[in-house]
């Protein structure tokens, strides 16, 4: 179910309070070949798939802005920063007390620090949240093989493969000191962390299936389905 398509009366008539799944993405550069909304598109699709598996989950409208300051210097990148994102999540989840819990499906790694901070505070307030993000190889973390493959499966018309080129393929942990001090541009001139030239739509479908299975399992552990 999509929250935006429901009415207040629909929710009031439910037998029990549903869970709310919120897709959180970003609007940021993804190399010269992927759209700025890549992270958001992935998060939306994962929430759609999750909601399709359980009648007690409602998918909220997406949040297309996040903490993307590390991508500054590349055209089109927009960022609300750590503090604003943390506050946004805090107030949004606080407003969702009529739901049984909130699942934050995050498509951008840069959002994790403020998400975790918000989650810790919300837990002290007695509010149940799950923060979940897809994972991948340490040498393929941004606009590389995995993300490009997924987008070739989800929205092939939005992928400009003739512009795809390798970026840096060093593991993220080796890049972090320079990345934190100088942003992505300091470690990759084209903004890519990985190699998108090997991307394949079929592989993208398999990656999405793995991520979906992992998300479903995490939700089942945190919020067991009512019998």
List the helices and strands and how they pair.
Elements lengths: L7 H5 L6 E6 L13 H16 L3 E3 L21 H14 L6 E6 L5 H13 L4 E4 L12 H10 L17 H11 L18 H22 L5
Parallel strand pairs: 1-2, 1-3, 3-4
Helix pairs in contact: 2-5, 2-7, 3-4, 5-7
InterPro entries: Creatininase-like_sf, Creatininase/forma_Hydrolase, MftE
GO molecular function: hydrolase activity, acting on carbon-nitrogen (but not peptide) bonds, in linear amides; metal ion binding
EC number: 3.5.-.-
- The second-level CATH architecture is 3-Layer(aba) Sandwich
Question: Would you give the CATH topology?
Answer: Rossmann fold
Number of domains: 1
Strands side by side in the biggest sheet: 2-1-3-4
Identify the CATH homologous superfamily: Creatininase
Shape verdict: globular
Helix content: 40-55%
CATH class type: Alpha Beta
Span of the ends, CA to CA: 19 Å
Estimate the strand proportion: 5-15%
Oligomeric description of these chains: single chain
- Number of separate helices: 7
Mean pLDDT: 97
Order of helices and strands: HEHEHEHEHHH
Question: Largest sheet, described in full?
Answer: 4 strands, parallel
């Amino acid at each position: 179910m999509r929250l935006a398509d429901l009415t207040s009366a629909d929710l009031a008539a439910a037998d029990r309070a549903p869970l709310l799944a919120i897709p959180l993405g970003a609007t940021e550069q993804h190399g010269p070949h992927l759209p700025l909304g890549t992270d958001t598109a992935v998060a939306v699709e994962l929430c759609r798939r999750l909601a399709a598996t359980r009648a007690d989950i409602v998918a909220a409208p997406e949040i297309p802005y996040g903490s993307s300051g590390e991508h500054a210097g590349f055209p089109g990148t927009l960022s609300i920063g750590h503090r604003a994102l943390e506050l946004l999540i805090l107030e949004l989840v606080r407003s969702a007390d009529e739901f049984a819990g909130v699942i934050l499906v995050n498509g951008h790694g840069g959002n994790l620090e403020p998400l975790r901070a918000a989650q810790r505070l919300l837990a002290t307030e007695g509010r149940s949240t799950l923060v979940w993000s897809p994972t991948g190889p340490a040498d393929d973390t941004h606009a590389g093989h995995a993300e490009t493959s997924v987008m070739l499966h989800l929205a092939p018309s939005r992928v400009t493969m003739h512009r795809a080129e390798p970026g840096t393929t060093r593991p993220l942990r080796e890049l972090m000191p320079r990345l934190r001090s100088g942003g992505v541009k300091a470690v990759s001139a084209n903004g890519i962390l990985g190699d998108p030239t090997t991307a394949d739509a079929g592989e993208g479908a398999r990656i999405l299936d793995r991520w979906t299975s992992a998300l479903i399992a995490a939700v089942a552990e945190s919020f067991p389905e009512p019998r």
